[in-house]
Design a protein that fits this description.
This protein is mainly α. The chain contains 4 helices and 3 strands.
Length: about 100
Amino acid sequence: MTSPGSGDEIGRFLTIADAAEILAVDVATVDELIRSGELPAIRVGTSGPWRIERVQLELWIEGQYEETRRYSLWNQGEFANVVELSGARSGRMRPVD
């Protein structure tokens, strides 16, 4: 990241440690998000360090807010307890005639 008090904007690419600091999580959490494909990142060289584009991190954060908002709205909806729509599994279901 930039040095404190420099007033400069953060560069285009962040290290895993930078992203972890921004998200207030540990480095292992960011590494797992990258390896799972959930957080877009690039590798510098074939085995070099991971870099996260600042814009991609911001988009990912916005996506997490949207996912949380939709989940909350769904759970408040009138069909949230309908097994077929909620994604919950309940034993064997009988076919409807």
